[in-house]
Records
---
Amino acid sequence: MNIIAVDDEKLSLEALVSCIKENLPNETVNAFRRTTDAEVFVGRNGCDIAFLDIEMRDVNGIELAKKIQAINPKVNIVFVTGYGDYTGEAFSIFASAYIMKPVTAEKVKKALETLRYGNVFEEGRLKAVTFGNFEVYSHGEPIKFRYKKTKELLAYLIDRRGAMCTNSEIIAVIWEDDDFGTDRQDYLKKLKQDLVNTLLELGSEDAVIRQRGQIAVNPKCIECDLFKYLEGDSTMVNSYKGEYMAQYSWAEYSIFKTL
């Protein structure tokens, strides 16, 4: 999900971003003090929610909203201002919400609950973070598995980006040995079942594809920084600092890092 916040006053922008992050702690908020920079970003990356100050020096927020809507007619516009005389014009261009300054987390929360266009949070869709340490979320909360190694199994499947993985391949990688005995294979079977059961409980069972002796993730069902990076998303390209699934030694040799 792409979120932008635009305000030409530094402290006001920082306060707005802080309130958004308090409500959406696992989302990236792209902050801009210049409307031209915001417009370029949206043209390249799209935008789901735009928090726009109205009274700005170069282009006011209403004009910027019109430009963003020309790029994406179904963007959710949330106007933020210290003035009350823009309300009619703001809603005439189908704004989702109108927040009066000072901005608070509670005001942002109410705005997010009344978004005009669809459910941009995509209920049931997983979000995976691979840059730095690996983590996976559902509905904004870290997923807890029965077995610790289930999370590592999911990390490896995400690293493989939809390619079917055999039992022997998985064992060789996440245990880093060639012990393919019955005990190891039985344990892997438990990990797979734990993964499937957990995702089923979360309503995300479509995120994993199983065939006889093989398993893979469905990338279309997972929002992931790695996937976006490989698609050329500039935000993800800029956010990658060289660390990838840092808690797993096998990730150091990922094909991703050799591309």
Note: The two ends are 25 Å apart (CA to CA).
---
Amino acid sequence: MIRKPRGLALLALAALAPLAHAAPMAYVPNQRSGTISVIDTGTDTVVRTLDGQKTFGKRLQQVAVDRDGKTLFVIDAAHSKLVALDIATDTVRTSTEIEDDAEGVTVSPDGKTLAVCVEGSQHVLVVDATTLATKADIKTQGRNPEHCVFSPDGKWLVTSNEASSDLDVIDLATNTSVATIKTTGHPRGMAFVPGTGHLYVAQETGNVVDVIDVAARRKLSSIAAGLRTAGLTASRDGKHVYASNGGAGSISVIDVAQGKVVAEVKVGERPWNPSLTPDGKKLYVANGRSNSVSVIDTTTRTKLKDIPVGEMPWGVIVGP
């Protein structure tokens, strides 16, 4: 019998073994630094800083990531541009002119379309995610639309209108606003909660999270949260919603089944726009006035770490 050298045998076994899955990256746009901090969620450290090869202005707003984790869509408000950034090379693939008061950008469930909320001039741009060509320019009925969110089936787009304290419901088949829904006060971050059919909306002056039935076009209830509730995200299993309270410096953990806050976790100053890892085990929240990102263990509901980032971080988006 011919025996293979032991080293070759180990190499062969290694080749057959499945590749370890790398931890997802978290992306943090730093408004006043004109940079994006990249956090490895496995080590909870900043591993890169992106700036589009020093082309970004010092007024970055929201970012969104494509389904492959290869492209970041960035609102560079200082230059009035929507930018598609190649993450691997930190180079701008393409960009398009937008108005200088755009703030929110989000990706449709199928990954083919972007929605950009243009806050000051009361409209939403529907944009092709590959070419950044504008497919529709939709006037909102409400004033100052800041955040946009697609319904899970991709049929509807909802905007949170800060100045009029309501939501626009946009039919994407006709690209028109077909309804408004009144909210408690100054709506900001939003998330559809899986398994419920409901939209949860942070209310900054109401200090609550509103539960909205979009199909019925009405508010169902309000859940008391913390002072100046602004950011919001939901777990993939639909069991919990996490709301950032800018005035309280905390995260409220909402149990969806119970319809109430079951824990509050202290973080940094002016937390907003949190994001969960795909497995739901960690929550990341940007602390705008602390220039940091807090990491929360969602099982123990404790803060694990504060990660220094750039100046005035706007929020966090965790990639796939």
Note: Residues 1-5, 7-20 have pLDDT under 50 and may be disordered.
